[in-house]
Amino acid sequence: MTTPALWSAQAHMPSVIGRQINVVSAEGAYLTTDTGARLFDGTASLWYANIGHGREEMAQVAYEQMKTLEVYHVFGRYTNNRAIELSEKLVSIAPIDDAKVILNSGGSDSIDAALKLARRYWNHVGRTDKKVIVSREGSYHGLHAYGTSIAGLDFNREGYGTDSLVAGTERVGMHDAAAFAATIERLGAESIAAYIAEPVMGTGGVHPPQEGYFEEIQRLCRENDILFIADEVITGFGRTGEMFASSRYKLQPDIIVFAKGVTSGYGALGGTLVAPRVWHPFFEQGADSPIYRHGTTYSGHPVTAALALKNLEILEREGLVARSAELERVLARELKAIESHDFVTSTRVGGFLGGIELSSDVSAEFVTDQAIEQGFITRPLRGNTVQISPPFITTDQEVRDLVGAVRRVLDAAKAKASKATAT
Ligand code: PMP
């Protein structure tokens, strides 16, 4: 048997061979495949195609930037105008006052940057035992070695040896502030560097925060000198109806990790926003100032920075963050209505991202596969949950059509199950 050269990401290869969906072009909220199928992008690719696909002015901005300066690094004394402008823009919209910006190539990169920075900071201020990172069950923080080590999805840690790839990690229940308090008690605050969470848990099944949970976590962080890190890789740049979910859920993070929505996927860019408490010693101690030894070849890449600037301009010009808030309300209504279906156990919405949790009568994989046959892309998440997170340019009717397609699949599955019982 011939096998493909491309080793797909997160794929059980024998199951995808021969069933691959080859996307050849995309415009707005729709993709076209090599078989000519037109598919509605109900997940905005991996939660990020927020301004929609195929924007001419994004192509133009990349072209212009490449003609002027395709790349130069930002190590040491070097910088470039686009990296400077983007950083200034991000500082102006960040929910952290007087933040600094570290630019990298994606979410996993930026998780590494954030967690290393947390440790480097404590080390510099003389709290050298503060190394442990606490994350949540069900969390997803990318798949580099640090993200894998703190992963709250067990299958992402499987097979790499029983220890974490990076030492010093602890996991607590998703909404269990008491478990965090117990962890602090058990390990001692002097050994914990940071707590990290997605404001709305994404890959773990779309879980918005429970009332009061983050207030309690932040209180524990403050009282115990533990840095609070918000992973806004999915939620950043409008997905929850505000530029950052930290604003919506009243979080005061010391570090915010972002990626995806910063360019809507047009460029491979991620980064971290850092609060003054953490950046201060690295900027203002003269010759004694420590060096944060981190950075990647493409940190501050001018083409991706130019794409991010244009993406942010489009979000603002077209009012897409407010539109995302409107779309959340449409989605919430549709999901409420589908809850009465026998095969749906619950639905959740936290911004313009929703999850439909299914009963054991039907699998999210099956529903996803069937929905594609009808022209709608969704995605199975942990906990037998179907992901819904279309681009912000989606119409109300398209949201109804997407949920309607899921309903038709569930109706057919139910009719088949009843028939099987009857015979
Ligand atoms: N954090 C979260 C919350 C994510 O959802 C993701 C990616 N889905 C990442 C980090 C990692 O980002 P990347 O895939 O760009 O490395």
TrEMBL record:
InterPro entries: Aminotrans_3, Aminotrans_3_PPA_site, PyrdxlP-dep_Trfase, PyrdxlP-dep_Trfase_major, PyrdxlP-dep_Trfase_small. The keyword Transferase applies. One of its GO terms (molecular function) is pyridoxal phosphate binding. Its cofactor is pyridoxal 5'-phosphate. Keywords: Aminotransferase, Pyridoxal phosphate, Transferase. Pfam families: Aminotran_3. PANTHER family: AMINOTRANSFERASE, AMINOTRANSFERASE CLASS-III. Belongs to the class-III pyridoxal-phosphate-dependent aminotransferase family. This is Adenosylmethionine-8-amino-7-oxononanoate aminotransferase.
